[in-house]
Each structure stands twice: as C-alpha cells, then as structure tokens.
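Section 4.2 – Deliverable D4.2 (structural model, holo form)

The reporting period included a commitment to supply a predicted holo structure for the target in complex with zinc ion. Inputs used:
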Amino acid sequence: MLAGSHLLFGNALALSASSTPLSAFLTGLISHHIGDALPHIDGNIFRENEHDDTFLNVKQWPIKLWVLFLLDVMLAVVVLKFTVLSAPEKIGTSWRLLFFWASIGSVLPDVINFTNLRELLRKTLLGKAYLNFHKNFHFKISSKSRKGKIFFAFLAQSIVLLLSIITLLGIVAS
Ligand SMILES: [Zn+2]
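Output (structure tokens):
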C-alpha cells in the first residue's frame, strides 16, 4: 500500500480499537504490516520482474507512480479532514491525539525505508531482522497472469479502503 492507504487503514483500526496514544501508535504500526500483506496496489504494479522487490528510490519513481501516490494521498487527506479532524471532541483522549499517533505508526515502516533510519537499523541484529520482515511479509504480484492479479489487488484494496472510510465516518457520527 502507498502512504495514503496506510493512513486510512491505520487510522480506521487504531481509532476504533485504541484509547491511548501508545495503543494508537502500536495499532497503526501493526496495521502497516497487515496492509502490506493484503493484496494491494503500489509500486509493485510497475515492476517488470516479480523477484525484484527492492525499494525504489524516490528519485527513480516513474511518473505513473507519482500520479498514483498523489491520488492516494489526496484521498486520505480529504477523508481524514472530513472525518476524524472534523469530529466533535469526545470525552477522554482527543481524536486528534489518537489520529496523530496512529498516523505516525501507520507510515513509520516506510519512512524508515526511505530515510537514513534504514542504515541505522541495519547495523543491529534486531533492526536487520525487522527490515527483512518488512520486506518479505509483503503481497507480491507475480508475472504470471499479471493483469488479472493487478485487477484482483485493485479490487481487494478498494474493499479495504471502503471499509476504512465507512469506519472513519462512523467515528464522526458516534
Ligand atoms: Zn511497508
């Protein structure tokens, strides 16, 4: 999943399941890896070789990936703006605080991969194991019947996003 979808999925799970900043962060973090494992669309659809699972450097992104990325982020910004960020405050921990920590948790694994944090983690055994887990616990589109698989991934991700949006709308209404 790209950043916007991770934000929507992570916030939907975290805001319905957690009531403290720490649990919102952890739920967001876990949601990232669940989102990665589900069939989904990201830079993978532009990859020719299914075994090539290196993270593309932002400078190497094809224009098509940028368009996909911007659409994905725009959807998340619009939905989050009109749901959790416009929700009337509730008693207890504020929506905004939970949203903040859930958002950090849900995009952190990819932020690590695109920054120097990756090199830092690589130096430790545990960090290395985590980087490998992030890379391998990931849905891949194989080159066999590629078009069908991309369509299936698109459909599956649309359902996940729709359910996330309905959940976030429910939070505003409650
Ligand atoms: Zn990821």
